[in-house]
Amino acid sequence: MKFYIKTFGCQMNFNDSERIKGILKSLGYEQAQSYEEADIILLNTCTIREKPDQKVYSHLGEYKKVKEKNPKAIIGVCGCLAQRMGAELVNKAPVIDLMFSSFNIHQLPQLIQQAQAGYKAIAILEEPPEDEDKLWEYPTVRDNQYCAYVTVMKGCDKNCTYCVVPKTRGRQRSRSLQSILSEVKALVEDGVKEVHLLGQNVTAWGQDIGMHFADLLYEVAQVEGVQRIRFTTGHPKDMDERIAKAMGEIPTVCPHVHLPFQAGSNRILALMDRGYTKEEYLEKIQMLREYKKGITFSTDVIVGFPTETEEDFEHTLDLLEKVRFEQVFSFKFSPRPGTPAYSMEGQVPDDVKTQRMARLLNLQKKILSEIAKEYEGTIQEVLLESYENGKLVGRTLTNRWATLQGPEELLGKTVLVRVERANPYNLECSLVSVLS
Ligand code: SAM
Ligand code: SF4
Fold this sequence. Notes:
six-stranded parallel sheet, globular, binds iron/sulfur cluster, 13 helices
């Protein structure tokens, strides 16, 4: 029996899929190369913007053909769209046999049994169940041998007015320190060198269990064999001095932070209910630069939030110029049903959003080529994660992709490289020495 999973959306969804693969493996399923040969096909969906929603329907149309050839094949949908739409999704797409929310991934074995018996197996809970932590008992199945995601919290207690996450993922639940550490230890024993702590709002970890995210960083750093620690996504409001200090004191915490600012205008930030101003955001950036030498930043930006004027948008461009992010993920505002911004007055026309987006991307491209030049000739530490098209591929401590010629045996090694040529999205390097 074989399974196939298609995943949309954020790293949290990818990590959920890795866990789902672990559950399916424990039931004796093997991973199929394509959906055509699978007995269970799963779509792990995202609903953060409208576009990913639409993709789901076209994929389901394709999967329907598999069922024509193999009527016993099970087609399932999970993730945020399943959570947001519930039974309505099955009415729209009756081909779905199985549907579950991110709250009840651990119930997958029973749900599969139900679907195999010919019933529609649907488990969409309104609230996370008591036994949600059972999920951690299943190991993940990862494609990357050396770098691993570790989900440390679920849900989000912020209420940004544009965002569906608090609805689809529920209130914030920090995973216990003990559970996180035992997963990190198991990963290291399995050959992992870099752990990437994940949460919709990871810097708020611990607030609901009387702990602080800085404590988690110190604890994970104590696990022998962890060479690199990264985390995503940081929230500017929770990014405090304790975290900055921990980052400075722990050499294995990488000098890179993903810190979404969303908008540069204080008026728009207030309408988004983000809980900080442009000036406060810049102060946090400065604080992090002081504590962590050489730190780089990436961010998320929303363009065309309701009522955004030309002057508001210029504040966004100004923030890009001031911080000089190494990576910017920019999105046109997409009104999501059920969020306050959906029905706000002053929706910005799509052509204006498109023009602003183009200007933002142009500016960022210019900044990136300038930053790239600064890398040329420097020595960087790279963990070699994969071998693609005859080249070794890895990331610098500052989260830049780097490629170099070299034997495949170097996979999994941490090396020093010299940057020969730098373009905005990749550093072409030569090997200097092997560190470990
Ligand atoms: N928790 C993170 C934070 O506070 O920044 C973000 C998580 S969200 C899954 C990822 C990104 O999607 C957000 O940072 C935001 O830029 C974007 N996003 C969320 N809702 C959106 C919407 N309605 N329209 C456009 N972009 C949106
Ligand atoms: Fe969504 Fe805001 Fe929570 Fe991020 S912090 S997940 S943008 S509600």
